[in-house]
Amino acid sequence: MKRCWGKVLEVLEEAEALKAGQVGNLIKLPNPKESHDQEKGYAAKLLWDADFICAESAGDGINTGLKLKGLTWAGHDLLDRLRGNRTS
After folding, report:
1. 27, part of any domain
2. Mean of the pLDDT values across residues 65-79?
3. N vs C: which end of the chain shows fewer Cβ within 10 Å?
4. 52: pLDDT confidence band, cut at 50, 70 and 90?
5. Residue 22 in domain
6. Rounded to an integer, what distance in angstroms lies between the CA atom of residue 29 and that of residue 78?
């Protein structure tokens, strides 16, 4: 599966919008047996594996995914770069 920068940005912005202590909705991880948004789940998994987002693994065995909890420092930096910000 290819990395989609639009979905990466979507996941980062969703994580940024969370208030302290808030947990986001389940983002389903890619599953070849389902037709949900595979690209968003793939982007979320890549970002989590690379420590750009804080998330918790969740699911019931059928709907496996991640629940966003926020951004890491590196995640904020990546989001700034994707938005074209040059702040320090």
Report:
1. yes
2. 96
3. C
4. very high
5. yes
6. 21
C-beta separation of 76 from 87 below 8 A:
no
Which residue do the tokens 């920068």 mark?
A: 5
pTM over 0.70? The answer is yes
Per-residue confidence (pLDDT) for residue 17, from 0 to 100: 96
Does residue 53 contact residue 70 with C-beta atoms inside 8 Å?
yes
Over the stretch 11-35, which tens digit does the pLDDT of each residue have? 999 999 999 899 998 898 887 777 6
Q: Is the residue at 88 inside a domain?
A: no
Q: Name the amino acid, one letter, at 60.
A: D
Q: Which helix (H) or strand (E) holds 58?
A: strand 53-58
Residue 62 lies in a domain: yes
**Full residue range of the structural domain in which residue 24 is found:** 5-83
Write the CB contacts of 33 (distance below 8 Å, at least 6 apart in sequence): none
Mean per-residue pLDDT over the chain, rounded: 88
Domain containing residue 47: CATH number: 1.10.10
